[in-house]
Amino acid sequence: MEKRQVKATLSSDLVKHFQKRGMTILEIAKLTGLSESFISRVANRERSFTIDHLVKIERSVRQPLPLLLLEALSQESIPTGLLPLYQTTRSLLFSASELKHLLNGEYLSGQDNDKLKSVDTQKRSIPATKKVAPKKPSAE
After folding, report:
1. 64-100: per-residue pLDDT in tens?
2. Of 35, 33, 29, 1, which Cα lies nearest the Cα of 15?
3. What gap in Å lies between CA 110 and CA 108, rounded to an integer?
4. Domain 8-116 bears CATH identifier 1.10.260.40
5. Within 13 Å, how many C-alpha atoms sit on residue 120's CB side?
6. Are 17 and 65 in contact (CB under 8 A)?
7. pLDDT tens column, 106-134
């Protein structure tokens, strides 16, 4: 079976993203089911994740892979002209992910859980659609 490799830079950026979130190499290894040594080599750009590894990470952290990759990407590497598109896409993906977890009664962490509990759902509820009778053609 052919292994589909992800660019070493992106793999390393993803490991560093998890470390910025407070995870250790050991915790990332447990999350992915890979060895600490392998994760360390990924962080140092000596190895890369495969697509299968990324799918496992996505399922483990219950966050969409595109959002994880956008968050892991350093802002300096994004061309200035594409930065607004990057920021809008990230915001949309984050909102969609948050909504999915909220609707499913799932939360990513205790901190996210506290944040979502503080949301006044009555103020954020979607208004009911009003049925409007079709206009009758005017008789002229």
Report:
1. 888 888 888 877 878 889 888 888 888 888 888 887 7
2. 29
3. 7
4. yes
5. 2
6. no
7. 655 555 444 434 433 333 333 333 444 45
pLDDT tens, residue by residue, 1-15 = 456 667 788 899 999
Where along the chain do its domains lie?
A: 8-116
* Reported pTM: 0.62
- C-alpha gyration radius of the chain: 21
CA 34 to mean position of chain CA atoms: 21
Question: What is the structure's pLDDT at 19?
Answer: 95
50: helix, coil or strand?
strand
The CA-based diameter of the chain, rounded to the nearest angstrom, is 83
Alpha-carbon distance of 117 to 111, in angstroms, equals 10
**Chain mean position to CA 95:** 10
- Retrieve residue 11's tokens: 């793999």
CA distance 95 to 124: 13
Nearest-angstrom CA–CA distance, 26 and 69: 21
Beta bridge partners of 50: 5
In the numeric block, the tokens 């984050």 are attached to 94
